[in-house]
Every structure is written in structure tokens, then in C-alpha cells.
UniProtKB/TrEMBL annotation:
Similarity field: Belongs to the GTP cyclohydrolase I type 2/NIF3 family.
One Pfam family per UniProt: DUF34_NIF3
UniProt GO MF annotations: metal ion binding
Protein name as catalogued: GTP cyclohydrolase 1 type 2 homolog
Residues where a divalent metal cation binds: 65-66, 103, 220, 224
């Protein structure tokens, strides 16, 4: 079965309320391909490896979290940008990308999907007074020592995380997928025992140690694999089309 590209894009935009969210890149259809869609290939980032996999799979649409045309990037179509766009255009494949709308969505969002994978109980937003809050606060069903929780993360995500051990047991936890280490101050203010995100920077280590909380950097790519899969599955069910997730390994 095939559906119109315009119908797929309209539904994805509506479902994620993409127009309401101010972002660092355009959300939605970034590159237009053939007008009919039978197969979606999804991935975290629209890298050349993912595009090549989409060509091999005879995809009509590539659906990603990290697309193109970021603010302040060089707008010239040269180098890897030229090669990536050439691949899409030569094979008549559309690129559909959602950044912050896919982080914050309450059903298929990266943060709520990571909670499902790690068996975390969602209590509410990391910043209750911020309508654009992307992080979440919640709890573990049973307290765990930081090293035991890090082991759970390793087993669930298939990547050994960096752990700054706060020593005390983890009962309440805050998390925000991707490059959100800067939210550690909000996590401290929320009174949690641990903060989990994708990346780490040098000041984050000191902030965790001096505030007495555990910090887990589980990988930007590893923590953001699940939202795009859930969105692709939703669209596939909604329109009776095919969806294939392709995981292009990334150690960061």
C-alpha cells in the first residue's frame, strides 16, 4: 500500500505539534522526494551511512531526529552536505526530520521512550514552569546503588556509560537525552539522586560531585535511538506502510 507524501508529512507534523515548537532547525519535510510513500527508513542522524542504507532498502522516506540546515551552519552546498543531498535527490528520497518535537512528545518522544527502556517511572517535567521543558523527572521502582543502575543502562542500551558515583542509592532521577549535560543544575534543583543524559563536559563532573548526586552519560546516539523508532512505527501502523529502523553505530 502507498500513501501520498503530503499526507504522511501532515500527520507527522500534527502528531508532534511541530509548528508550535521553536527550534534550531526546520522540523518536518527538509528534502522532497517522490510523491508516494511505501517504505520509511528511520535512524538517529541523516548521515551518509543511513542514506546509503535507505537507498539499499529502496526507501521512499528517510525519517530522522538529526536532520540538516541547522542555525549558524555554513549554508553552502559543498563537501558532505553536497554528497548527502545528492544521494537523496538522485534517488528521489524524501528527508523528514524532527528535533525538539521528537524530544518532548509524551508518547513517542525520546525522553519518555528512554524511560520505558530503562524502566523509569515518569513523574513530570524537569522544569515544571517551562512549557518547552525537554527533560523529565521520575523514580526507580526500587532504589539501586549507582553502579547497579549504570549496569542496567549498559545492558539496556548496549553501551557502557560514564558514571560519576554519588555513592548514595538512587531513588529519584532526572534525565534528558542527547547533549543535555547543561541541565544538571535543574536536576540538582529538582532534588534528585541522579541525572542521566547522553554527553558529558568537564564542568559537569564537578557539578555532580560538589552537589552530591550521581551523573550518568549514556551516549547521545544511544539515548536517542528510541523516539524515531516509535514515530516510524506509529506512522507505519497509521498508514499500513513499511518501516525499517537502521542503527548506524556511533560511540558518542
Amino acid at each position: 500500500m502507498a500513501i501520498a507524501l503530503s499526507t504522511l508529512v501532515e500527520e507527522a507534523d500534527r502528531y508532534l505539534t511541530a509548528a508550535r515548537i521553536q527550534d534550531y532547525c526546520p522540523n518536518g519535510l527538509q528534502v522532497e522526494g517522490r510523491p508516494q510513500v511505501r517504505r520509511i527508513v528511520s535512524g538517529v542522524t541523516a548521515s551518509q551511512a543511513l542514506l546509503d542504507a535507505a537507498v539499499e532498502a529502496d526507501a521512499d522516506v528517510v525519517l530522522v531526529h538529526h536532520g540538516y540546515f541547522w542555525k549558524n551552519e555554513n549554508p553552502c552546498v559543498v563537501g558532505i552536505k553536497q554528497r548527502r543531498l545528492k544521494t537523496l535527490l538522485n534517488h528521489d528520497i524524501s528527508l523528514l526530520a524532527y528535533h525538539l518535537p521528537l524530544d518532548v512528545h509524551p508518547e513517542v518522544g525520546n525522553n519518555v521512550q528512554l524511560a520505558r527502556v530503562l524502566d523509569l517511572i515518569v513523574e513530570g517535567p524537569l522544569e515544571p514552569d517551562n512549557p518547552r521543558s525537554v527533560g523529565l523527572v521520575g523514580a526507580l521502582a526500587e532504589p539501586l546503588a549507582p553502579r547497579d543502575f549504570a549496569r542496567r543502562v549498559h545492558e539496556a542500551l548496549g553501551r557502557e556509560p560514564l558514571l560519576i558515583d554519588g555513592e548514595g542509592p538512587i531513588r529519584r532521577i532526572a534525565w534528558c537525552t542527547g547533549a543535555a549535560q547543561g541541565y544538571i543544575d535543574q536536576a540538582v534543583a529538582a532534588g534528585v539522586d541522579a541525572y542521566l543524559t547522553g554527553e558529558v563536559s568537564e564542568p559537569t563532573v564537578h557539578a555532580a560531585r560538589e552537589n552530591g548526586i550521581s551523573f550518568i552519560a549514556a551516549g547521545h546516539h544511544a539515548t536517542e535511538r528510541y523516539g524515531v523508532q516509535a514515530l516510524g512505527d506509529y506512522l507505519a501502523r497509521r498508514f499500513a506502510i513499511e518501516h525499517l529502523f537502521v542503527d548506524c553505530p556511533n560511540p558518542v
